[in-house]
Amino acid sequence: KIGADVFELQKKMKDGERSVNDFSETSNQMAINVAKAGAVVITSIAAITAGVITMAKEAAAAGVEIKNLAAQASVGTTDFQKMAVATRTVGFEQEKLSDILKDVNDKFGDYMATGAGPLADFFEQIAPKIGVTADMFAQLSGPDALQLYVSSLEKAGVSQQEMTFYMEALASDATRLLPLLRDNGREMARLGDEAQRTGRIMDTDTIEAAIELDRAMSEMGQSLKTAVNSALLENSEELIELARVMTD
């Protein structure tokens, strides 16, 4: 068909060459664009992963802190969280609440053991008037003992100055809790129940999961640290040379 005239063949071959070249350039640009997009995706995934890890660490730490503070206060984690939500309204963070409940336990324990201490005035001056005894407090947890203490002072009709005296004898800054503990702790209970109803209280299973997560994160961190240290030590000669060159 071509015969002696190869002009059409040459023309088609040149057209084909241009097409191949155009395709090559397009492909190269596409590759560059894909690489750039891939870098963005990888960076985004890395950022998201780092964010998730940070959130996981914070969540785990929050659960561990609640567990530890509740244990220090000798109260369950759910009750402690409900109280913590309420006491934030009077400027107490959960660390301060834990300290106060610990002081309550210590002060009552001191009186039960020695018959003396900061609560001696209460048991000598107030308790006999309203029919409460040390044995009644001995059976109570810190929060319940604190509530009975305030309710007893209210029942005895003490003045505001006397109320402050007795509250500060129990724990430093405990007077600030009075708005929550009056009327048998009605406001404390209301705020705590509302927090639980609206999902702001971590249940026991969640806290245990947080503790397990914290343990796993710590182990992972230690493993990574050990791996990095091992890699550095395995290349110590090169690193020493690098340090020498940089120093020079």
Could you describe the 3D structure shown?
With 248 residues, this protein is mainly α. Helix 3 packs across helix 6 and helix 4 packs across helix 6. The longest helix is centred in the first third of the chain and has 67 residues. The radius of gyration is 36 Å and the shape is elongated. The mean pLDDT is 87.
The N- to C-terminal Cα distance equals 77 Å
| Count of helical regions | 10
Strand content: under 5%
Q: Any idea what the radius of gyration is?
A: 36 Å
| Major β-sheet annotation | none
**Overall average pLDDT:** 87
Q: Which regions are unreliable across 5 or more consecutive residues at pLDDT < 50?
A: none
**Order of helices and strands, N to C?**
HHHHHHHHHH
What global shape is seen? elongated
Task: Tell me the helix content.
Answer: over 70%
Strands, total number: 0
Query: Structural class per helix/strand content?
Result: mainly alpha
Main attributes?
10 helices; mainly alpha; 82% helix
Summarize the structure.
With 248 residues, the protein is mainly α. The chain has helices at 7-73, 77-87, 94-114, 120-130, 134-138, 142-156, 160-170, 178-197, 204-234, 236-247.
Please specify the SSE layout and strand pairing.
Elements: H1 7-73, H2 77-87, H3 94-114, H4 120-130, H5 134-138, H6 142-156, H7 160-170, H8 178-197, H9 204-234, H10 236-247
